[in-house]
Structure prediction request, 624 residues.
Amino acid sequence: MKRLFALILALTVVLCGCGKEEEPKQSATATITTPTTTTTPEQDPSDPPKVDFGCYVPDSDVEKATSGAVKAYNIDFDDCYGVLPLGEGLVLFSGTLDTELTYLAPDGTTASLTLTGSFMLPQDMVLVPEREAMGYYDQQNRAMILLDTSLEEIDRVELPEDIVGIPVADSDWSMVYFFTEDELRCMKISTGIDRMLKEISFPVQEIQKLHFDGTVLECLILEDDMSQIMMFNTSTGELLYASEKWPTVATWDDRYFATCYENGVLQYLFGTRGGDTQRLKVDDPVYLEIPQMMAAVCCVENESSMKLDYYDLQTGVRASSVELSGMFIPECLAADLQREAIWFIAVDQEFNSGLYRWDFGLSQTGDTECLTEPYYTEQEPDMDGLAQIEERADALGLEYGIRIRVYEDAVRIQPSDYVFELEHSVAVYEYYLDLLEQALTAYPDGFLKKVGTTSDNGKLTISLVGEAFGDNDMGSLDTAVGVHFYNDGNVYIALVMCDDFVTTLYHETFHAIDTYVLSHCNVYDDWEKLNPKGFQYDNDYVTNQFREDYQYLEEDRWFIDMYSMSYAKEDRARIMEYAIREGNEEYFQSEHMQAKLQLLCRGIRKAFGLQNKSERFLWEQYLK
Prediction:
């Protein structure tokens, strides 16, 4: 959470950029285009500028179905996977082993270029708008190449022999940035003079993209199987941001759009440098960020169609929407700023690729609901929203006879060997309370009310936290996704809101159930007799990390996993965690695992007085 806040600060602060150089002189070029047989419709001079291409298909099925909002275009190849607006036309990407570039002009003429032994995507190209050109890196010749709209080379920048990885040029075609084995460097294109920005040496270091008019450089760093993103000031080489939590950032001028995860919840954040960060409140995946237009496009697919939604981030409304029958997730979405449209490549039910343009102004929704809100931080949380979250948590806890604690209440009581970090995001709580509400339905009425404490007024307390950090010196792991502990005779479960939330809930809740069973009957007294001869639990979490008894996890299985061999209580908790969820039948095929599951279920029924219940509880689904 704190790392994400650092990213927002890095994005919003006004950064000093590299000085812009004079444009290199353009070399003379020859235009070589091949006319197609398709004709374009005549246009009245008083009409708006012509927007349809020579390969436009009038009155196509998709155009009729969308009242003209989506138009279809004929392309001569089925393996087209990308589209990139350039000048008045489009660059289409196709091919498999080689990359075939095709420039499609509005009048129907085309130019093509084959890049042998290359596989390039639209994002591998840098657009140079003022020159109606695009650049890319030629790895074989170690040079940056600039192409015009006839796909003719108009500039070539030779790079040093010790370059490592793929360089990137800015949109002015004035500077190029690259790594060597131990340095981050930049070169002035007009002079060919390069200089060091920063000494840096990792096993893998790759340049990703430039931001904010070339003032911020985003890089990917890999070391010891760990990846992280680093952002540098392109003028000074100063490290602005570093984190293993890798957001996706799109920028233009002083605007940005960042896609990132907060405790497993996808967040869409946007704003301008020096301004407040906003959040787009949508559950659907954003497939295209358009900071130039302050917009975002979401795409949702079902069995027979896909839906495109266009969100105007300045007003916060879903301004335009189309549903396309018989089409599936686009392989590429690209914004055409001149035409205020979206180009995309999509496949039909026969997996044929097609080129389409969505004029989102022709499919307006009329929606008025604002789907943006301020992005709240730990320093300035949404107190009104958190108050509503607390009310919802209290109501859910009352329904099951337990307590559910959030925000500051969740971290107020901690065990001696763990430190909990609070969560402040309302969106994160909303997501995980939905998961919790669904997961709790696995327990019969009144079941959890019994496991809170031995006293009459105690209750099981579930605390939802952001992180849990342990102390090795006290026998705890460095980090945990769930912690079961006692305080003043009451039972607490701390759950980190992350991808393993539901499984951790079942695991940690069973520790409370297990204690209740052990104090109300003696069914588990012979538990260790169900283990292999001579086997002993580690009875230590740190020691268990180095255990290698893989023979007990093979077809004649004795345990769920290695962690099950740490303690008898963890063995039973792992069994419950897997037994209560669907798709885990394979873990209970052996006679040993069946014996353990049967004993676990028998103990629960006896301790909770459920022997005469005919109902088959969820954790009994794999009993034979």
User: Anything to note?
Assistant: Residues 13-50 have pLDDT under 50 and may be disordered. The chain is about 15% helix and 35% strand.
